[in-house]
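Record format v2
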Amino acid sequence: METKQGKPTATPFKVVRLAASAALGTLNEIYYKELANAKQQGKPVIWITSMTPIELVYAFDGIPFFPENYAALCSSRKVAEDLCKAGEARGYSQDLCAYALCTFGIMFEKRGAFGEPPPDPDILIATEGACATHPKWWEAIQRHYECPMIIIDAPYTVDSETLAPRQKAYYVAELKEAVKSLEQATKKPFSMEKLREVVSFSDQASELWDDIDAMRAAIPTPISQIDVFTCLFPLVTLKGTKEAVDFYKQLRDEVKARVDNKVGFVPNERFRLIWDLFPVYHNMRLLNYFAEFGAAFVTDLYGNAFSGRLDSSDPFGSLANRYLSFFMRSASRGKAELYKKRAKQYHVDGIVFHSNRCCRNFTAEQPDIGAILREELGLPSMSFEGNMVDPRGYDDAQVKSKIETFIEMLEARKYPKK
Amino acid sequence: MMISQFDEAYRNRHKLAEGWEKEGKKLFGYFCNYIPEELIYAAGFITLRIRGSSENIELADAHLPSICCSYMRSALEEALKGRYNYLDGAVFPKSCDMTRALYGIWKRDIKLPYYYFLPVPGKSTDAAVDFFIEELQLFKESLEKYTNKKISEASLKQAIKLYNENRALVRELYNLGLRDTPPLSGSEAFAVLRAGLVMPKEEHNAMLRKLLPGLSSAKGSPDGKVRLMVAGNTFETIELLQAVEDSGGNVVVDDIDIGSRYYFSAVDENAEPLRALAERYLRKVPCPCKHPAEPRLYHMLKLAKEYRVRGVILLTQKYCDTHLYDRPWLESSLKNNGIPVLVVDHSDTGWAGGKFKTMVQAFIEMVG
Ligand code: SF4
Ligand code: SF4
């Protein structure tokens, strides 16, 4: 791992693929086929923002479409930059969220990740559950497609422990309003029984995800951050289906076997890190660069954002609990406390901040979160600038040199020369 | 009463506030257009809008990335420099992602005795109003706990009356802009109304009462200036309005968050106070963080017609997401209604005056 000068050097290694990736590939294929055929099948295509209760979509037998997820796909297929530019050509600022710009590109240019555009929305659902910009770009989408749009108002609690009955009641009322609008738009009656079933599948998938997440605390950590990001797809898009549950059972068993046999994804794990927050979809391999120095990411809050326990005996109430006390909505102090807890549980040596230049919502607090972790835990951090989707302005060489400096520092702290 | 007195009151706002503090008055800071100031006033505070400045950012860089709006960065800079030490407390509404995030950042980095986060709903439905009433009740109780004094219904009604008076007086100022030859320029009007953000309403009212009669009888000189509207969000740079005037234009009306979106719409004095406040704040001309967005467009179209403007300067703070999302739609909707639009990216820190002037001159030539 070390050269004569004491500088760490990168050691390429062979990535062992998860057996579950094959199943993931199949799930992806089936989903996109169903999406493409939705209209023929008479199923409504419902475009939703993250933190929209996807459970409602499945309860109405709709096909959810996540522009954010799809923009990530466009990014990994290297078509996002062009699509973002097309959005900008219509007057949208380059400073806006690249998920949105990419979606605008898709909408105006009528093309997508594989050439063909995704099907037009029959219904739109947006919420400020995660981000105040969501209803804004949904409004723009709505003006373009002129289809029905539902905005689910999600009161912010910020100090998340203060979720109060009145906030819950308002949100539950919003959900019930949404159900009414969905009944009108789909011309199908709402079935509580169906919602309970969906909620139960959603809960099971989340429980499995939480198990997998907890197993990342093992030394060595069993799976890579790339695996975590790619395996999120069912939790984001298929949550509420039996298929997602089956997939996560398989994944959980595989990860558990690795833990039981002390198999890590990096051959020689020397450092354990936290990743904050967004993936760099146009350059996922960057994560492997850390691994080449024996540095493994053992936790992140991004994946967990999509997991949340529910209770099928109280679907609406538990949806309210889950989506309103979602930890990403808390103030910087709350997020820092979560990381503090995890830093101990997961035996963490440092934190890496992806300063996502198009996302003010989750980048604004990074300096303070870093400061809290440094001051209260002595946890070192590094930060690099990027954009989750749009590769413009990203300087790979510069980022890598930052990583090297960071690793050097970690090396000196954790393995000091006698 | 001279307009320059309003301008000085604004420019010396920190010094004046420090003076009030020494006199034993209690001062309270708030952000944005969605905080019912009447409630805070009734609890015994002077309400002050937290503002930024045009100074360069030095201290805030370590706390807030450069991709955040210059308004919030600059306001934080002022606080880090200790200029808001006179505040007893600050309240942040849920408006945009910045008002949410900055609550936590201020709370950690700026030591004030009291902080509050007000979860303002994103809609204006009946359910949203009912919910907001409950939130206001809680905010009221929190203020009462902090001051150790009950807020009586009478004091709340009196606060509503006072703030309504202020709105009505400022509205008279706006009415002057309706004339063919307004007795004051856009930059002068702006100086008058922005002073009202940072001083006790009683005082602003008293100053307006002295100013208005003289203006009402004054005859503006027919100067042939091109009538314009400025729309968008907050700015410090009054010089940009002067640049418009130097270029043969005059801003006669606005749709900005410290202008008509703040001063228009009164609170119903006959209704139950918390309900009246909830309704007024959720049903006033919306800022883009609220839904639906259309009422704001109608407000702009109505003003454009009433004030007979020849064009709109659509000015957006760089990195202000909610405004940037609406911009292409507002621009095309205005144009479809026959109103020319000049789109401007704005930042108070490092304002590019020369570039702005060139753009404005060309625009005025085109629409004039
Ligand atoms: S949270 Fe950030 S990345 Fe997500 S939609 Fe909002 S701006 Fe975009
Ligand atoms: S509305 Fe815009 S200018 Fe105002 S605080 Fe939010 S981002 Fe900044």
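The two ends of chain B are 33 Å apart (CA to CA).
Chain B has a mean pLDDT of 96.
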